[in-house]
């Protein structure tokens, strides 16, 4: 039987679906979070060991697949909030503690706990820049997708250099769109110096 395009299937470390939906990957991440929370609640670990259980076990399992994912920012925040509350509790802080200090680094007198949407954006940029600089097969596919998105948007500018253009309603929701959304949120751009792959049909 044929594979349903809306049904996710597992590849090497990530769940994907032919139509690009993130439901299967999100369900998998929710399961990981729920199991971790249940185990931590039933454990007799010290506060330091509970935080170590997050950094050594849960965090790597969440970070590994999200670089290839396109999960929305608000969905990731909702998924990660129970974990964040548990971590803050182990540090002797309540859930109303300012998140700016939770996510700020030690140099800003913060706890340095990463924000899951930020972890996804950083992982996406690492993959994007790594493959574009290597110009391997994946880098070529990324370049094709970028050029396709530029053509569909129809403004004649690279979406990575003008990230706000990828947020228009008619822009397709792709991996590059997700990267542009992150770039827009952090007020940054990616300067691409490689030639276009998709040729302009007419001037």
Topology at a glance:
Elements: E1 9-10, E2 15-16, H1 23-41, H2 47-66, H3 73-90, H4 99-103, H5 116-134, H6 137-153, H7 175-185
Antiparallel strand pairs: 1-2
Instruction: Determine the fraction of residues in helical runs and give it as a percent range.
Output: 40-55%
Number of DSSP strands?
2
| Low confidence ranges | none
Quaternary assembly = single chain
**Number of H/I helices:** 7
Structural class: mainly alpha
Overview of this structure, please?
Strand 1 (9-10) and strand 2 form a beta hairpin. Helix content is 54%, strand content 2%. The chain is mainly alpha-helical. The protein has seven helices and two strands. Helix 5 crosses helix 6 (137-153). The N and C termini lie far apart (45 Å). The protein has a two-stranded antiparallel ribbon. It is globular, with a radius of gyration of 19 Å. The longest helix has 20 residues, at 47-66.
Short synopsis of the structure:
The chain has about 200 residues and is an all-alpha fold. It has helices at about 25-40, 45-65, 75-90, 100-105, 115-135, 135-155, 175-185, and strands at about 10, 15.
Descriptive labels:
203 residues; mainly alpha; two-stranded antiparallel ribbon; 7 helices; globular
